[in-house]
Amino acid sequence: GSPVTVNRTVGFRYVALVTGNDTDPSFVARASGREGSGSHGAPLTVIPTDQLEGRWSAAAHAEMVSSAAAARFNMLRVWGGGAFLPDAFYDACDARGLLVYHDMQYAQSGHSPKATPAREAELGRAATATQEAELRHAVRRLASHPSIAVWDGCNECQVVMGTPTGVYATFVMTVVASEDASRAVWPSCPAAGWSSGVRLLDALPTGRPLVTPKSRSRIETHGPYQHGSGFAAVNGASRLALFPPNLPIKLPDAAPTGPAHPNVFASEFGAVAMSSFESMAPTLAPKHWGLHAGQRSDNCSGGFERRCEGENVMAERNYPCDNMIEVYFGRAPAGYLDATGEAVFRRQLYQCLLAQARRRPDHRVPARRTRRAAPRQRARPLQALNVKSNIEARRARNELGILVWQLNEIWPTGGWGSLEYGTPVAGQVLGGRWKPLHYLYARSVFADVVAVCGEGGACYVKNDGPRPVAGRIAVRALEFASGVVTPLAAVAVALPAGAGASARFEIDLSAFDGSTHLLIAECIDDSGAVLSTNEMLFAPPSQLQLPTAVVSAGVAEAPNADGSIDVVVSASATALYVVLTSLAQGRFSDNAFALPPGTATVRFLPTGALDRSLLVSSLRAEHLQANLMPAPAARPYERPRAHLAA
């Protein structure tokens, strides 16, 4: 027949999933000789970009990966409850240097491989010819991509030999390993590794039977998840379940950090949020522009998969956001969450998005000695506060892999992502508009070098980068009323190369009031380069004494030489969490930031050709003080509810 020609871009790298030696089980991701791919693991979980595969866009996948890299991620995990993704995704990961932790497409109960009696007798394992063919096809199709670092069997299936989940070892990963012996294999996400069948120094398969251990210290975790509650919907609890805001964060006790010390790879946790008004409004009739849609509540019942009876359109848009708003902004005035209209819906969504970023994790590093450094992952404003504090507390401990659930949204509504729905339809930005959380990832949360301060002035600085760092930390206080920035401390820094190089220090906060000031910590190297800027709240928004501010934004007349265009933001008084939003395709160089009285210039970075007229006509600026609620009545916290897995 006719010859077949295939052109592929080839990359070279060696990834070892170091799981210890015969007496010391551990877990370290080492790429080309460097733990954690040059930094601690900073990944996010990727789900399909659209429920309808016919609407998948190669350009949207490429932009989504570009946004992940721009926010300092170094790994993406392909979730087992989704789908094998299009070539454009893997090509973009190859080009941008992101590693891929790849689930086979199985997840939890009900999705597992099913046996047929004939095939069971023939192979001695639970399998079907169709499933085996699909696995072999998927691995052969993707194995040439250097970005793929790890194959694993499934999402949250806990592979136990001699039980139905043993099929992931005896069949799924055995087939995968037979097709690709050049990559590390892992039982599931999360898992405790293998007791046989791989080389413990790099997790490459040996050809011997894959067997999981009967017991082992926890080295990989999922959760906790901050679900929404307070409104009848298909997900979340109808009863309002509040939780502490954890502001300021309470740092764990100091302990040794780095790959040589006990550690955990947190491969899934997160917080829910809605999307922007621009993303959600086109999917709703104007009369339903509100978190409760201005309709009678549905009657929803059931557990994880709830069934709702009624006509409320917001009941079908994932988790509610009532509890997130009340925790950070205080008791909602009567009728506020039921109100509809463009202005109130924008305010509700701003509050919900800010809340996502601020939750402290519950995990503790296990006592048994384990080693693991892996890629890092990265939540709109309330979503942003919840996840930000969560990750900052994790980085204070020896969690060298931090993978957030999730990167992207599959629909233009509520979800767990830090990128909005990215299919190019009305109201959406190609690849996903950045939520406030995504900007916080880029500014500080996933910076290789970051400084964090918490309760009582306890602070740490951490270097997860591949090179030593010498410089200083400048800690300052921004007074809301005056806009004056006062230096509080200058701390010299000299840290070896990461991952996990850290140091503790303390600052005097005896005269610092979190209701009237914002704490800012900048990491600056000896050349004067700013490595990260961390803006830290020491009180929830409901307790802040913010001045009334007018914030505006204007677009330059002409673009810069690199295709970007300047946007000048002005504030009449101190404004916190200034958020710029537009219908134009692209993102801003910074967002969700603090602005003292005066001006600041950010750049709009277009995707493709700049549409200045659309940027100008649709640009809007929001900030925290303009989106506060009246002071709430005193209301004690309810005991946090046990959360279902995401």
UniProtKB/TrEMBL annotation:
Gene Ontology molecular function: any one: beta-mannosidase activity
Keywords: Glycosidase, Hydrolase
SUPFAM superfamilies recorded: (Trans)glycosidases
Domain of life: Eukaryota
InterPro entries membership: Beta-mannosidase_GH2 (IPR050887), Beta-mannosidase_Ig (IPR041625), GH (IPR017853), Ig-like_fold (IPR013783)
Domain Beta-mannosidase Ig-fold residues, every copy: 556-624
One annotated GO biological process: glycoprotein catabolic process
Keyword field contains Glycosyltransferase: no
Protein name as catalogued: Beta-mannosidase Ig-fold domain-containing protein
Native species: Emiliania huxleyi (Coccolithophore)
Lineage: Eukaryota, Haptista, Haptophyta, Prymnesiophyceae, Isochrysidales
